[in-house]
């Protein structure tokens, strides 16, 4: 069975998920970021290049939500489940319904969404309403620090800030931490890949840490017989 609306090259038997642990300052497990990987490509960027070229973002996101929901009964992951979705995908009823069903299925575990391409949102009032509905259903949202300069971000219900350590210059780490504290939001530093980065971010007071310097990914393989 292939992805609905996606090219045949994206066969489900070639797809897999990994769970990247997210730890708090004391080393406790806050949750896992659930990431999609395509076995045929070395980098997930190759998969997204196809999806963007064919304008299939919502199709991919809907299928990702459905597949992630199928993983829940087979993987007892502690803490929140963090998914990365394109912001415009939340404009679709099907995606919102799937997310609410997934949040219900997770029970006491929280569903946290990181929205990609927020600056490309075509209908901000609709997105704001969609996020409010999802938030009322118990779903929370993470905002990338790069999107904090978007005036629309001030009107959206975010509960956590994310900072990509690899892309953010070291000189700005303290600045973004101060911005997070000003907004009374915790900050997650991700792509932490060295012990020095881990030490510095801990000393600066990053609330949550993620990356290979923190803990290795956990492979999540679905039962292929169900596809």
UniProtKB/TrEMBL annotation:
InterPro entries: Cyclic-di-GMP_PDE-like, EAL_dom, EAL_sf. Pfam families: EAL. Residues 1-227 form the EAL domain. SMART domains: EAL (SM00052). PANTHER family: CYCLIC DI-GMP PHOSPHODIESTERASE PDEF, SIGNALING PROTEIN YKOW. This is EAL domain-containing protein. It comes from Pseudaeromonas paramecii. The lineage of its organism: Bacteria, Pseudomonadati, Pseudomonadota, Gammaproteobacteria, Aeromonadales.
């Amino acid at each position: 069975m292939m992805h609905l609306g996606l090219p045949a090259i994206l066969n489900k038997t070639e797809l897999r998920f990994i769970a990247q642990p997210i730890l708090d300052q004391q080393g406790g497990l806050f949750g896992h970021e659930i990431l999609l990987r395509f076995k045929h490509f070395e980098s997930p960027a190759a998969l997204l290049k196809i999806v963007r070229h064919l304008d299939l973002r919502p199709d991919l996101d809907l299928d990702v939500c459905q597949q992630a929901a199928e993983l829940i009964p087979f993987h007892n992951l502690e803490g929140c489940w963090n998914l990365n979705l394109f912001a415009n995908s939340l404009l679709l009823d099907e995606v919102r319904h799937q997310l609410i069903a997934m949040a219900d299925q997770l029970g006491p575990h929280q569903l946290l969404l990181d929205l990609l391409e927020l600056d490309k949102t075509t209908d901000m009032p609709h997105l704001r309403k969609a996020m409010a509905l999802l938030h009322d259903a118990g779903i929370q949202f993470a905002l990338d620090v790069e999107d904090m300069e978007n005036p629309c971000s001030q009107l959206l219900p975010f509960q956590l800030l994310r900072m990509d350590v690899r892309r953010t210059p070291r000189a700005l780490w303290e600045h973004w931490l101060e911005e997070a504290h000003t907004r009374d939001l915790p900050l997650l530093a991700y792509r932490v890949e060295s012990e020095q980065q881990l030490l510095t971010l801990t000393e600066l007071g990053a609330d949550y840490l993620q990356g290979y310097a923190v803990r290795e990914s956990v492979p999540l393989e679905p039962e292929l017989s169900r596809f």
